[in-house]
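User: These chains co-purify. Model them together.
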Amino acid sequence: MSGAPSSDDRYPDGHLAAPPRRPATSPLPPSATAAPAARPANAGHDADVIVVGAGPAGSAAALVAARAGKSVLLLERGPFPGAKNLYGGVVYGRVLDDLVPDWAEQAPIQRWVTRRQTMILTGDQALAIDYRNQKWGRPPYNGATTLRSEFDAWFAGLAEKDGATLVTSTVATGLLRDPLTGQITGVRTDRPDGDLRAPLVIAADGVNSFLAKEAGLYPKAGARHFTLGAKEVLSLPRREIEARFGVRDRDGVDIEILGGTGGVAGGGFVYTNLDTIAVGVVLSVTDLATSRQRPEELIAGLKAHPAIHPLVEGGELIEYGAHLIPEGGYDAMPALAGDGLLVAGDAAAMCLAAGIWLEGVNFAIASGAAAGRTAVEALDAGDTSARGLAGYRRSLESSFVLADHRKLRRAPALVLGDRTQHRYPDLICGIVEDMFTVTNPRPKRGLMTIARARLRGSGVRLRDLARDGTAALRTFG
Amino acid sequence: MSTRTFLRWPARPSSAETLSFADRMATVRFDVADKAHITVDSTVCEKCTTKACVTACPADLFVPKTDGGILFNYEQCFECGTCYMVCGARGAIRWSYPEGGHGVVFRHG
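Assistant: Joint model of the two components:
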């Protein structure tokens, strides 16, 4: 082979495609034994903490533990952190204020979200709440669009700078246990001689968390608690994006959509990056299965909607992808600690999917950081049993992570329920249609008359509407 | 018994777009592992009436055979997990992660 590799052959961290795996003789890179800040692990241990998964949760855990002087192995199955990750577009970075005070200057941000729409789509109608706030484009900021291949790699890099040892291209294939006590003592990896031992493992291994399942922490993980996000990234000139979405400079737009998913429970989204836009659908896995519709066809349907088409028209597809989302919320979470094990991020179903609030990366970072702090305390106390790790749940309960999830525990059922998905969009758009359609020479009807007539025609019983309204108030109020 | 069968991509146009499914998948980078990370027990599939994996898989990896079994391809897998979730208690689809460093590489996730 001759000639320099094109930029497309490079991973974001500068590696070439398909980097050679490390020599089979040692499971660890040379730097593992030379990590300067790391206190040497106890005999028989490869590290104080093994963190599985270098996504936002894992890197936060690794960063916190490494800063406290613990030796940390951060395992990543992809060739670089972020390679396996795909998300619905917005990171709320304030969660990093304490850990990385200048995160806003450092992080690889695409655009700052200064315009946010919550949109309801029916056949060919659209109703949007369109909110703008220029303050969100300045410190301390609010939401930002980023690419996970860049953001996750950046954040894992911070953990590395603080002394954690990142080991990429390595799958943790199972847990190691003490044969007598059952305490988890490390992980098996897919490297030759790849067993790694530590008094504590943090499973930040993502939505499918095979480690949390193997540890028996998951209740029967049902498909109904998961949605599939399928996304297209479309290339458009930067100026064209700014003209279509009505923003300039580094300002960006986040559009969250109810409806437009071919009757499959879920929703849609459009986000602006610098010179790409992301458009996609989020689909209830169980509903998708029975609908017999294909994800990419549902994206095509959303893109063809008259409210969305002008935004995405002519964009060249540069990447298609899909990822599961844990949407079950508080009541679908696994046990968060076992003997020698903590679970964080998507692996612990920490994603918040509450209709008007859709957040995940911030919950992953906060839960990971809490896991890192608990790890340090438990190691210092010499007790990494489930009891010794009980402070993890307590700290999450007293932070926004489980406070928000507990408050919004009814939201997933409400948002993905039949009436919200299939009745209310038509009902609401119908009322607005009657409000704004001028029917001269007939005189105008009052809003209550319109609402009552539309409610009668909607098939929604007043009793159910009242019940949902109460539930919504209790949940979101 | 598990079967491992590999298919090439059918160049089937997706609705509402001119892009073929093969072109769509060609936008995604895969560093394909030698070993399949999906196995399908086709004898279970023969008794399955829904075959939800066929439509639900976002990468269109599962194709029904005339005898009621399933052909599948692991090479262009997003590693999302939808297939084993919709297969559910039937348990025909077994799924793990591809060998470290292999599989899908999202650049714009």
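Strands of chain B lie at 29-31, 38-40, 62-64, 70-72, 93-95, 103-105.
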